[in-house]
Amino acid sequence: MPQNKRESLVYSVIMCFCMVLWMSIYNVALQHGGLSLEVVQQAWLGFPIAYIFAFCCDWFFVSKLAKGVAFGFLLRPDSSVRRKVITISSCMVVPMVLIMSLYGAGEGCFHTGMWSGILMQWLHNIPFNFIMALPFQLIIAGPLVRFVFRKAFPVGTIAA
């Protein structure tokens, strides 16, 4: 886990890249009914704006909220590092799924011009995104990004 604000920034850049890319591919694949090269291309084309939006939401709002909930209600100071990681990651996924599901619904409505269905599309997106995002974060992205982050930036190499 990051030890200071600069490490948090670098870690967030990497984690957000991983999660947004995967979830973009997943959501486009859901729309197209399967995975193909065209799906990956479309996901990649929509990725930059989604990434910037997700990163800003994460950095300026969600991470503070998630850590506040985790340390205020779910964790004790003597909680294990593993419990802290799982709890904070889970607390990050919930608001990010809500926000990014709305983003995806808005993007879909923008392309179709059917803004009247945005609420129903958002509510439809939430469970589909949640059942992919939480396990992906806890089982694949989280461990992979933490490993890559610490290999690239050993403790103390990014000064506070």
Write the layout of secondary structure elements.
Elements (H helix, E strand, L loop, with lengths): L4 H28 L4 H38 L6 H32 L5 H35 L8
Organism: Butyricicoccus pullicaecorum 1.2
Pfam family, one: DUF2798
Protein name: DUF2798 domain-containing protein
Describe the protein:
This protein has one domain (5-152). The chain has four helices and no strands. The chain has 160 residues and is mainly alpha-helical.
Please state roughly what percent of the residues sit in beta strands, choosing from under 5%, 5-15%, 15-25%, 25-35%, 35-45% or over 45%.
under 5%
The rounded distance between the terminal residues' Cα atoms is 14 Å
Percent range for helical residues?
A: over 70%
Total number of beta strands: 0
Structural class: mainly alpha
How many helices? The count is: 4
Mind telling me the C-alpha Rg? 17 Å
| SSE run | HHHH
* Average pLDDT level: 95
Organism: Butyricicoccus pullicaecorum 1.2
Pfam families: DUF2798 (PF11391)
Keywords: Membrane, Transmembrane, Transmembrane helix
Protein name: DUF2798 domain-containing protein
